[in-house]
Design brief:
The chain has 13 helices and eight strands. It is elongated, with a radius of gyration of 29 Å. The chain has three domains: 40 residues; 72 residues, Four Helix Bundle (Hemerythrin (Met), subunit A); 198 residues, P-loop containing nucleotide triphosphate hydrolases (Rossmann fold, 3-Layer(aba) Sandwich), CATH 3.40.50.300. Helix 3 runs antiparallel to helix 4, helix 7 runs parallel beside helix 8 and helix 9 packs parallel to helix 10. It has 338 residues and is an alpha/beta fold. 57% of the residues lie in helices and 11% in strands.
């Protein structure tokens, strides 16, 4: 009997031990999950809990600055922009007495101020430009530049639709005469929008095409010419000469660069190339619906101080919106998980 009782007790102990081990394993797994969840709650909350002093030292916020820089670079901002924002935050926070409960509020305020400074670029008054041209008995000429594949033709069509809805009469110029069927896409968009398009045969002088469009607009009393151009950046010298001639002959009121938001920081190289060729006045970013990170928008504004006219979203003619810096800042801060 004693042996049976001993076995029962031993069996019970073993069960308890197994349950204890299982419980320990469950607790360990639970702990790991909790740690992962904690990490995902955002660096700012963790840092706030650790800060127990009112006057912040540089070492208190360096982890936050480092995380912001990583987030900005992951959002396609350049290192130059990330460093600028990091430096601004250090200046705003280090050696300042801040109540722990107001730390989050203060850092958001400082970040917004830094972003506002980057995006504080004089806007372009399109209606004023169009009105000035009309007073001079001519059509305002807006020429679009950019490499192949960025969405120039669709951007021109969207812009034409935007202007037409405001009551302006728009004519298009198919100045991309180098690429096979370079004018066909623009012609299709023009047909869908019931807009005239001026084109020549393939290989024609694009400066002449745009010049003829201007003359047609003048004779037909149109308000605006929107002109496409070639984007074959691989033939750099030839393209540069061609673009310079286009501008020299047609003296556009606005030179607009179309950039693909999916291009990351290559937009800097593209801007430098076209700015060297013609002197860019404003920028349109395309495919923002696919990539809403927006860091390269910051990079372009910071480095070149040129306004963003529009953001292209989607494939429909109405999928275009005027750039709103305040909305952009709110979206970017949200992406940084503050």
């Amino acid at each position: 009997m004693f042996e049976k009782l001993k076995k029962r007790i031993l069996s019970a102990v073993q069960k308890i031990a197994r349950k204890g081990e299982e419980k320990e394993k469950i607790e360990e797994k639970k702990k790991k999950v909790e740690e992962k969840v904690k990490k995902k709650k955002g660096l700012l909350k963790k840092i706030i809990k650790k800060i127990k002093v009112k006057k912040l030292k540089k070492e208190d916020i360096e982890p936050i600055i480092s995380e912001f820089k990583i987030n900005l670079i992951e959002a396609d901002a350049s290192l130059e922009v990330a460093n600028k924002i990091g430096d601004d935050l250090i200046k705003s926070l280090v050696e300042k007495e801040i109540e722990r409960k107001k730390f989050k509020e203060k850092i958001i305020k400082s970040l917004k101020e830094s972003l506002i400074e980057i995006l504080n670029i004089p806007s372009i008054d399109l209606e004023k430009i169009i009105s000035k041209a009309k007073n001079e008995d001519r059509a305002a000429t807006f020429i679009f530049f950019g490499i192949n594949g960025v969405g120039k033709s669709l951007s021109i069509a969207k812009f034409a639709n935007f202007l037409s809805k405001k009551g302006y009469r728009v004519i298009l110029a198919a100045g991309d005469t180098f690429r096979a069927a370079g004018d066909i896409q623009l012609e299709k968009y023009a047909s869908a929008l019931n807009l005239p398009v001026i084109k020549h045969k393939r290989g024609a002088d694009p400066a002449a095409v745009i010049f003829d469009a201007r003359k047609a607009a003048e004779s037909r009393k149109y308000d605006i010419v929107l002109a496409d151009t070639s984007g074959r950046i691989h033939t750099k010298r030839d393209l540069l000469d061609e673009l310079q001639k286009i501008v020299r002959v047609n003296k556009p009121d606005l030179k607009i660069l179309v950039l693909d938001s999916l291009s990351g920081n290559d937009v800097i190289n593209q801007f430098e190339f076209f700015d060297e060729a013609v002197g860019i006045d404003a920028v349109v970013f395309t495919k923002v619906d696919v990539n809403e990170k927006g860091g390269n928008i910051l990079s372009v504004c910071y480095k070149f101080k040129k306004p963003i006219l529009f953001l292209g979203k989607g494939q429909n003619f109405d999928d275009i919106e005027e750039f709103d810096s305040q909305r952009f800042i709110e979206n970017l801060i949200g992406d940084l998980k503050i």
